[in-house]
Structures are given as C-alpha cells and as structure tokens.
Q: What sequence folds into this?
C-alpha cells in the first residue's frame, strides 16, 4: 500500500495505472449481478448480454457501449390532454422545479399541445438525445457530451454556465439553474450555475429500469428501448407504423420519436 | 541501572503527557463509519479519497459504471452521522463526517454544492455520532 501511495503522490499518470486498478466489484461480492451474467450470459456484443434470450442492461462494472442506442417513442394518439404524469414523475425523480413556479425555474420535460383545424394533440417534449447534438457542438468546455449509448448529458463538474447550449438547442430542452438548491436527491446532483436537461434517467437505465416518465405513464404513450435491437418493442413499433421526429430537417437524428401526430 | 531506567521512563512519561493531551484536544473528532473497515486502508483514504472520488465520478458520468466501492453515495451512507433528531446531519453541521477534517483544516469541499450530503430516506444512519 505504501508503494501505491507514493505512486499517486509522485505522478498522476502512475495513479491511473496503479491506484485505481482495484478489484472489480463483481469479483469481490459474489451476490452481485456480475456473477449471474458471468455464469449465464452469452455476450453478443460489448455491453449487451443475453439472459434467457432477453437483452438486459450491462453489469454495473461495465462501460456503456455503442452497440446500444437508447430511444424513446411518444405515441401522441395515446397521450391524454391535461395529463402531466410524465412531467410530475420527472420532477419527483430528479427534484427540479421550484415551489414558486417562476418562469426561470428549470424544466426538463413539458407538455405541448398542437392544434390544426380538426384536432388537438398533446405530447411531451424533452431533450431529444440527438446523434449530432448542437449543444455538444457549441459547448466551449466539453461539458456537454454524448454517452456511447446515445444519452446526451451535462458534466456539471466542468460546465461554466455560459448557456451556449441552451441557445443552440433547437428543442428548447435545456434549463439553467439560477438559484441555490438544497435537498438534492443522492442520485441526481444539481447546483446553481449549471445547465441541465433530461438525462433519459441514465441512473435508472444503467440499473435496467425504465425512465421515470415511461414508468409513470398510465396511457402507455411512452415506449423506451434500444433502437439498435430489432427485437425491442420500440424498434418493432417504429417499424410497424409511421413516425416522425421534431425538425428532422436539421439532421440532428434525435433518439426521441413521435407517432400519431 | 534498573533504577536509572525506571527514573528515566517516569520522566519521559510525565514529559509526554501534556503533549498527548494537547494533541487529543486539538485533533479533529472523526466519527467512525458503520462498517468494520473502510473500502481502502485509512491512511490511504486520508491522502487519496479525493482522487478516488474524482476517478469514480468520471467513470460513472461518462461510462455509466456504477460500482459502489468508491462511490460518493456509499461514502455518505456509511459515514452518515445522526443529529439530535436522529436524521443524518448535513454538511452545514460541524458533526458531518467530511466537516470533521475539512472544517478542522479549513479546506472547503465543493462537492456538496450539488451533491447530497446526506443519504437518501431509504438509507438511515446506523452509527453513533461524534465517536472516535
């Protein structure tokens, strides 16, 4: 241990190589999912494991992989006007939205109504998790980034709050935190001076759970899944029925699809 | 010879006592975690906990690696100190585990500007506060 300590003090490069090569958790704790996947799973691609024929999320100690592209399908024909369950679920999950309801309060997801001569449709709009995200293009510090599995996030550790990404986003999906925050959720650190937006519930997705909005929607208007897996529900729904995306002309290739518009 | 040695020992002990007492009074009071031992050796953690946390934060944020061994959430859960009402104290309290040393050394950690300094409601503290 003393050698390791000296290593980390001597050079940060050595620290990368020596100090952090700790035993993977799955090796030290036999009760964890890693052993199950090790024994039962057939690895078909990095990050994707098959257990009993069903694709499940990666083990805790494995990085996310490009073989997965997480996406969301919003079926506007099922989405009920006046219902804001998805917005409430998101707010409760992540703790955004001030009590005062100021126009400057953060807003990760909102309900929008579209009207034409004959009908009105209601649908939620949130970060569209683009394949070519304009927010990432313009970010001067590299805080805006796209995870390998397609989820677009903000690294608050290096966000300087310049808000270029908010101006660049064609979907008005990002918010700036103007005021001090207290009582953050342990899984969702948030603070004044940073830009934030929908994370597609990355913390839940990494644990093989659905995003909070999808789980809450009683009308089954939201479908979450792996766009790259032709067997997934979302891919089959997209293959079976016409869908559209917001501003496809911008060629951002969003991961959020809409049907029934 | 033996008498001399005993006399010397007594002198040394008496001389050292005020020093020991002084150090005890001046050292930070570090609350004990609830487990048998920390995830790494104590001396190593004192020197390097910030490096481990920084490494883990990038692994989690960019790669989605969510192991618990060096996770800030786990540190907070294991080292939570209950306040007078039994709920864990926040970083605002000088009894908070991080504050025990950081307050003593007058080094302000920025982590808790964003991160929760207490465990979630499903992780109640099980340790006694203020013990060495």
A:
């Amino acid at each position: 241990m003393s050698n390791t300590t000296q290593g980390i003090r001597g050079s940060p490069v050595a620290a990368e190589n020596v100090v952090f090569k700790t035993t993977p958790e799955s090796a030290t704790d036999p009760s964890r999912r890693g052993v199950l996947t090790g024994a039962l799973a057939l690895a078909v691609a990095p990050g994707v494991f098959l257990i009993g024929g069903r694709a499940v999320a990666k083990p805790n100690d494995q990085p996310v992989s490009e073989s997965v592209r997480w996406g969301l399908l919003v079926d506007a024909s099922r989405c009920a006007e006046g219902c804001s369950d998805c917005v409430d679920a998101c707010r409760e999950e992540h703790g955004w939205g001030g009590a005062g309801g100021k126009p400057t309060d953060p807003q990760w997801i909102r309900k929008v109504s579209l009207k034409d001569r004959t009908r009105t449709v209601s649908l939620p709009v949130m970060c569209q998790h683009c394949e070519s995200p304009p927010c990432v293009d313009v970010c001067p510090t590299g805080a805006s980034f796209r995870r390998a599995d397609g989820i677009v996030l903000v690294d608050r550790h290096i966000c300087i709050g310049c808000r270029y990404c908010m101006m660049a986003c064609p979907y008005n999906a990002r918010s700036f935190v103007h005021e001090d925050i207290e009582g953050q959720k342990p899984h969702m650190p948030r603070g004044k001076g940073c830009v934030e937006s929908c994370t597609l519930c990355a913390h839940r997705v990494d644990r093989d759970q659905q995003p909070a909005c999808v789980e809450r929607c009683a009308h089954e208007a939201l479908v979450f899944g792996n766009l790259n897996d032709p067997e997934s529900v979302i891919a089959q729904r997209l293959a079976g029925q016409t869908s559209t995306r917001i501003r496809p002309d911008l060629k951002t290739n969003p991961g959020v699809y809409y049907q029934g518009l | 010879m033996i008498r001399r040695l005993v006399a010397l020992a007594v002198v040394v002990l008496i001389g050292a006592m005020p020093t020991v007492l002084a150090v005890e009074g001046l050292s930070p009071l570090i609350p004990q975690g609830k487990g048998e031992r920390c995830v790494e050796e104590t001396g190593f953690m004192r020197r390097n906990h910030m490096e481990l946390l920084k490494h883990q934060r990038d692994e989690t944020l960019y790669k989605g690696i969510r192991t618990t061994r060096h996770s800030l959430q786990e540190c907070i859960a294991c080292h939570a100190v209950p306040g007078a009402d039994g709920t864990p104290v926040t970083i605002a309290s000088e009894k908070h585990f991080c504050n025990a040393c950081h307050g003593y050394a007058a080094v302000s950690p920025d982590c808790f500007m964003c991160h929760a300094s207490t465990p979630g409601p499903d992780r109640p503290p099980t340790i006694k506060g203020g013990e060495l």
